[in-house]
Amino acid sequence: MSAPTIAPGISDEVRELANQEYKYGFVTDLDTDVAPRGLNEDIIRLISSKKNEPEWLLEWRLRAYRHWITLTPPTWQHVSYGPVDYQDIIYYAAPKPKKNLGSLDEVDPEVREMFDKLGISLGEQERLSGVAVDAIVDSVSVATTFKDKLAEVGVIFCSFSEAVQNHPDLVRQYLGSVVPYNDNFFASLNAAVFTDGSFCYIPKGVHCPMELSTYFRINAADTGQFERTLIIAEEGAYVSYLEGCTAPVRDTNQLHAAVVELVALDDAQIKYSTVQNWYPGDADGNGGVYNFVTKRGMASGKNSKISWTQVETGSAITWKYPGVVLKGDNSVGEFYSVALTARRQQADTGSKMVHIGKNTKSTIISKAISAGHGQNTYRGLVDMRHSAVGARNFTQCDSLLIGNDSGAHTLPYIVVKNKTGQVEHEASTSKIGEEQLLYCRQRGIPEEEAVSMIVNGFCREVFKMLPMEFAVEAQKLLTVSLEGSVG
Amino acid sequence: MLKIKELHASIEDKEILRGVNLELNAGEVHAIMGPNGSGKSTLASVLIGRDGYQVSGSVSYEGQDLLALSPEERAAAGVFLAFQHPVEIPGVGNMYFMRTALNSLRRQRGQEELDPVDFLALAQERMKLVEMDQSFMNRSVNEGFSGGEKKRNEILQMAILEPKLAILDETDSGLDIDALRIVANGVNALRSAGRSMLVITHHQRLLDYIVPDRVHVMTAGQIVRSGDKDLAVELEANGYTSVQQANAGRLAPVGVAR
Ligand SMILES: Nc1ncnc2c1ncn2[C@@H]1O[C@H](COP(=O)(O)OP(=O)(O)OP(=O)(O)O)[C@@H](O)[C@H]1O
Ligand SMILES: [Mg+2]
User: I want to staple A223 with a disulfide (CB 3.0 to 4.6 A). Which of A93, A416, A440, B10 is the partner?
Assistant: First the structure.
């Protein structure tokens, strides 16, 4: 596609939108405590001691590190990028608190202002529509809202570091139980160096009274962000969890290698939603976040249910396959995804559903949109084991291409070792219809708006799975990310 | 209101419109008939600004150069096409689509936008005109609509968007007898002194309902004959061959018509 052009007849609002660059690209001047560049056992000891961790956790990190150095980065994914120099990354950066935080009101005003700019309120009185937020800047959690209110019903929602201090037994029991430290290259790296993240525990029978949310922000330069999230839903518990991310515009690449582990016991339900809007790099492919993430849920209890919903519009490169291990009988796993690649973005994403229990059921709905020079690959695994009697999967992968230089690829892997297993797979690839565009424009809808309308329509099945506010946010994000893709 | 002069249009090297001349005054309804492939839909496409044609000649619409405007600007200026083959837009609600369209037009015209409640009231009133059920509004645009339902949905949009120049491309094709009457009544209700229509059709039957001021016959990319409503009756009886023969002298067919 030639330089993005905008139809002459478009409204000022759309023009303004179209001229809007990545709006979260500002850098906040925070006084930051950083570790020296590079990775070795000393750095890991430093991180662990900064965080005042128990011995067993340091040992776990070191085991992960010793395993990691034996590994080479995976190359099977359908993305290309230069080699990452893991010794040139800063593995620990934390905004220095001006004083000890006694309460939320004492959050550093600069940090607070940064989050205000991002549209995230850290003030509980402003009640972000009843969403509790854990705000993470660079490597550490800076604030968690509504903690007390949640504690009343027994819900623990805090930063990972705090959980290690205050709930070490829970952390020890579940850490690495879903994504072991030797799971894959990036998961091992994360296990060795993770600095913070969110921890959430919903006790037996509790329906978490509000949406829980973590907001990630990479601020410091040349910093890797390695957070780790652990969510445990006890028997009959329910939680809906949201995750949002942004990073400043920088011309170097930033590495984000997170791990998320979910555990759902009998009859428990976890709904995990992500709106990922890391800096995607510029139109020529300079800069941007490498988003190499391992997310997995263990539906260990009978009738448990884990749903992943993701809207991925950011990052230069996305490599993630949120999955569910369906261990409990009748457990359910769901994956709803919208992945948009524009500019020079590349995404290799999909889901893994491993059916172990009887009558387990999984659904995968993937909507990939490629614009500009974007490359989008769906990669999915449906694995039905011998024990998974009566297991069922439904997979639907739809790709939408905008322009002539974008690409979409679908790579479904299906392994069924059980005669009663049922797998249904549907796939489609379409170009954004000239005919649809003309139809909208004939009715008076300006081109950019028409594209966004058609794309949003294409994604509707996924958006309707998101909590209301997130759905609105996701639609806006898509619109902004698509700007200049037409013409 | 609309003056088309020596309009030529080609795709790649194939000339489809070969010098169309047509004048339409405010409030008039003209019918265009003609064999398959003669260029009727192409004329409509060129008038709404579809991409991909090399166009020469001139089209003046209310004194403006229509050909210089983008499709959405033409829409804002009051040009509407009921498509011969309306497209489906999955996931986009019909009601939402029409409200967005109306509000886009209003915005471009500097008018205030309608909120969903006011729009719903307007839509419900106009739906009566084409006897369309509310359930169609909650479905995706044209998705899974039958051929006839799609055509009805086009006329509903026309009723809501209130264009000044409406081009109806074979809106009668695929309609059953009752639907034809309903759609024609809807169209007639929308006839007004300020609204002109160009009705493309193959069937004289439609023109019994929507009585045109003029009838034009297009063959091989030109309007070869014009007359009053009786011309349609004559065509019905004798077919296009008679028209073509009558004009054989001045037309040099180049094998455009199939
Ligand atoms: N994109 C295209 N490429 C090549 N030829 C085209 C293209 N579009 C239209 N044509 C040709 O132009 C001619 C006129 O087509 P058009 O659709 O305008 O006919 P029509 O009069 O509307 O016919 P019908 O009554 O069947 O609807 C046809 O021969 C058609 O095949
Ligand atoms: Mg036609």
Answer: A93
A458 touches chain B (CB under 8 A): yes
Q: Could you tell me whether strands A93-95 and A32-34 are parallel, antiparallel, or unpaired per DSSP bridges? A: antiparallel
**Which helix (H) or strand (E) element contains residue B38?**
none
Kindly report, residue by residue over B233-258, the tens digit of the pLDDT.
888 888 887 666 555 444 444 444 33
pTM for the model:
0.76
Residue A108 CA, distance from chain mean position: 26
Per the structure, the count of domains in chain B is 1
Residue A128 has pLDDT above 60, yes or no: no
Domain-embedded: residue B258: no
- Which residues does A302 contact at the CB level (< 8 Å), separation at least 6? A266, A267, A328, A329, A330, A331, A357
Does A453 sit within 8 Å of B108, measured CB to CB?
no
Q: Cβ of A458 and B91 within 8 Å? A: yes
Residue B83 covered by a domain: yes
Q: Report the CATH number at residue B25.
A: 3.40.50.300
Q: Residue A299: which H helix or E strand, with range?
A: strand A288-299
Helix, strand, coil percentages, rounded to 5, for chain B: 40, 30, 35
The partner residue sitting opposite A11, judged by closest CB among B87, B108, B157, is B108
How many Å is the Cα radius of gyration of chain B?
18
Q: Which atom of ligand 1 is nearest to the CA of B52?
A: 1
DSSP label at residue A409: E
| A461 reaches B (C-beta below 8 A) | yes
A410-424, B73-87, B217-231 — which one is most confidently predicted on average? B73-87
Q: Is residue B220 included in any domain, yes or no?
A: yes
* Domain encompassing residue B97: 2-248
Which residue's CA is the nearest one to ligand 1's atom 1?
B11
Burial of B70 (0-12, 13-18, 19+ CB in 10 A): middle
Rounded distance between C-alpha atoms, residue A137 and residue B183, angstroms: 61
